[in-house]
Design goal:
Layout (H helix, E strand, L loop, with lengths): L10 H4 L2 H17 L3 H18 L4 H10 L1 H14 L2 H24 L2 H11 L10 H31 L9 H21 L5
Helix pairs in contact: 2-6, 3-6, 4-6, 5-6, 7-8, 8-9
């Protein structure tokens, strides 16, 4: 399974996975409901960014997280800037980026197996409805892990096109899709080889 975990001995590394996931869910709810304004949004972005080095993670982890989010900031922020207002664009985009930065800290300080165990326990009530929580938890974990992987593939495609002098456009979707599907096949083969699924 793909792992975004970075070994360390910081406070967040030692904190139980369930506590971190609950805190992340609480932050997501708060960011959705509490009106922040531009100043409040800036404060949450600074706090989420500061959490990376305070957690004992290398500065490169924070820089990688921001680098992966650059196109989200440009596209989402630009669209909201055009269709709503500058203040709304900054606050809405800031909320999303803050949440993704927090999720980055959680995944970097928590082993994938621990996240999978917590999700499996949290989804246990679904057994009453005939749903096996194991595969559902595995799907959620893989989805979380695939976000930065696909972002990395997009960077590879853009770099390759720039190296050939090609213009970036809709055609970039095809090699990105091929890389993503090939990676998905490799992950599926690895899961089957470990006897996790058939």
């Amino acid at each position: 399974m793909i792992s975004l975990y970075r070994p360390g001995t910081g406070v967040l590394h030692r904190m139980p996975a369930g506590v971190k996931l609950a805190a992340l869910a609480t932050c997501a709810l708060a960011l959705s409901l509490v009106p922040l304004g531009v100043a409040g949004t800036a404060a949450t972005l600074i706090a989420a960014s500061a959490l990376h080095p305070l957690s004992g993670l290398p500065l490169a982890t924070l820089l990688e997280a921001w680098w992966r989010l650059r196109w989200l900031v440009v596209v989402l922020g630009g669209a909201l800037w055009l269709f709503t207002s500058p203040a709304q664009a900054m606050t809405s985009t800031g909320r999303v980026v803050t949440l993704l930065l927090l999720a980055s800290v959680v995944t970097a300080t928590t082993r994938t197996g621990a996240i999978l165990d917590v999700l499996t326990r949290a989804l246990a009530p679904l057994r009453r409805l005939g749903v096996d929580p194991g595969p559902v938890a595995l799907t959620v974990s893989l989805t979380i892990a695939m976000v930065p992987v696909v972002a990395g593939f997009a960077d590879q495609v853009r770099d390759a096109q720039r190296a050939r002098g090609a213009r970036l456009g809709p055609r970039a979707a095809l090699p990105l899709l091929v890389l993503t599907m090939r990676h998905a096949d490799d992950v599926g083969d690895a899961i089957v080889a470990r006897g996790i699924a058939r």
